[in-house]
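Let's study today's protein:

:::
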Amino acid sequence: MKKTNAARILDRLKISYELIEYEVDESDLSAVHLAATAGVPIEKVFKTLVLEGDKNGNFVCIIPGGEEIDLKKAAVASANKKVALIHMKDLEPLTGYIRGGCSPLGMKKNFPVYIDEAAFNQNFIYISAGIRGMQIKLSPADLMMACKANKTKITQED
């Protein structure tokens, strides 16, 4: 199994993790589909979103795969007035990652990272390893440390 930049960062930090491979469906890159394909509960699969704020530039949010980001909460967390998801065409030039393979670890720049507090209800979570078809299984606390992330509530209420 090929090591990704995200995995090498965790190795360097001496953080324990597991790499999980799964079959990629190019027509459905959603976290819900990934969870079903990989046979893992959706509440343990987290997606990485890149946003842009009007005051503080780009930042990263890690939220449960089955949830939607609350842009107002993300704006408050990141000290912006307004935020928006970046355009897909900007993802790779900005982060070095493609849609469906965007990891919060190992982006071209170290952007501020916000992890939804729901992650901390799980013993471990899955995040992208930085390529389609591979996830990293690790503890939320270890991810928070590796990304120097802030814990906050950034998903929509039901």
Q: What stands out?
A: Residues 5-126+139-152 form a domain with the YbaK protein fold (CATH 3.90.960.10). DSSP finds five helices and eight strands in the chain. Residues 5-12 form the longest helix (8 residues).
